[in-house]
Design brief:
Blueprint: E1 7-10, E2 23-25, E3 38-43, E4 46-51, H1 67-76, E5 81-90, E6 100-101, E7 105-109, H2 134-146, E8 151-152, E9 156-160, H3 168-176, E10 181-183, H4 186-195, E11 199-208, H5 224-233, H6 235-248
Parallel strand pairs: 1-4, 1-5, 5-11, 6-8, 7-9, 9-10
Antiparallel strand pairs: 2-3, 3-4, 5-10, 6-11
Helix pairs in contact: 2-6
């Protein structure tokens, strides 16, 4: 099988386990090995590369994921567009567990992560003003609506370092800032895709209300068990959305400015 792909997906093995003729390949990059082997399969006439960002055994916590290697490997395979589902928390009462958010902005609250390919001597300053691809986001929004999935067409995701969850004070702060989603992996993944000139869209599956919402004392703080429970309950919705999106994505460059 040719070691080439058109579209990349960051997700677990459950996303591709039912496809035929899946080839798993190991890759090396100047930034080390990716999180795991990359599975390549054909779907609807397109070559899709799947990579579990945490590794198949979930061996990489959020702050230790080899983000640069993951993005670089996708670029090496010829990928031009990436769809990135994530389990995420809600910071606003109207965004409920089981809803999907197609994020359009991020706020970085991480520390010490390797977050650029320009460590020198080559230096560039790519714009991160609009970090998510508008064309991929539009496809995801329209597909979610057509499937009857509760979908929010925009949202700012605040990315925390992990692996710990927020304190109540932090969560209250993020909510008061008006941010909608909280997650541990969107930075630097989304920005590194931009540095490589790749189109990138995040689909955030809401699993919880973070450390609870002010004025809603009956909502308990998030636990790891609750995150996994809600994600598993909604995994079929994620898969259905993902594969419908893959049908509609044109692997060729679009009219967006992501590659500039």
């Amino acid at each position: 099988m040719e070691r080439k792909a058109d579209i990349g997906v960051f997700g677990g093995s459950g996303f591709y386990s039912f496809l035929d003729h899946v080839e798993e390949i190991e890759m090396e990059t100047p930034y080390g090995k990716p999180s795991d082997k990359i599975a390549i399969a054909s779907y609807e006439g397109k070559r899709i590369a799947f990579l579990p960002r945490h590794g198949k055994k979930h061996q990489f916590p959020p702050h230790m994921i080899p983000y640069r290697a993951n993005i670089y490997a996708m670029k090496e395979l010829g990928v031009k567009k990436i769809i990135a589902p994530t389990a995420s928390g809600s910071l606003q009462a109207h965004i409920k567990p089981g809803d999907f958010v197609i994020c359009d902005q991020f706020v970085d609250r991480t520390t010490g992560r390797k977050d650029t390919f320009f460590d020198g001597p080559e230096t560039k300053h790519p714009s991160a003003a609009h970090p998510y691809c508008p064309e991929l986001r539009k496809i995801a929004i329209e597909t979610g609506r057509s499937l009857g999935i509760p979908i929010h067409e925009r949202g700012t995701v605040v990315v925390i370092q992990g692996p710990r969850f927020s304190t109540v004070a932090e969560s209250r702060w993020f909510s008061k800032m008006g941010w909608e989603v909280i997650n541990m992996t969107q930075y630097p993944e989304a920005y590194l895709a931009r540095e490589m000139g790749l189109c990138y869209a995040n689909v955030a599956l809401i699993t919880d209300y973070d450390a609870g919402l002010e004025g809603n004392d009956d909502i308990p703080p998030v636990t790891e068990q609750e995150v996994y429970k809600v994600f598993e309950e909604n995994n079929e919705k994620v898969k259905k959305l993902l594969f419908e999106v893959l049908k509609k994505v044109n692997p060729e460059p679009g009219k967006c400015s992501c590659a500039e």
